[in-house]
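Still learning folds. Look over my entry:

…
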Amino acid sequence: MTSGPRAGNDDGRRLRRPHLILIERRVLTEPIVVETEPAGRRPRPTGFWRGTAFYRIVRILERRWERGESYLRVLADRGCFDLHRVTDVDPWTWRTEGRWELTAELAAVPVRRPLF
């Protein structure tokens, strides 16, 4: 049973999102609060608070993990950003606590056709 194309033209072809070229505009080290979707083992970020302004995440462009850290490159409703999550371990209690930082503001330039 199929429900038909979710996003596409009348003839059934899927619409392609444009490729994005990202240019770093500003390097930042700013603490933020990230809102996540509560369902699932690894909750998906849905937005973040930067001061008193809320930025809704439209699309996660890139996700990368390292030991005790994770990096997200997101497209938000107010621009494109690099987010960094660090997990700190208390040496006495071994409790972990995560904190989020905004590390860069990016400019996104859409490109309709492949470059190569």
Notes: The radius of gyration is 18 Å. The chain has one domain: 26-109. The mean pLDDT is 85.
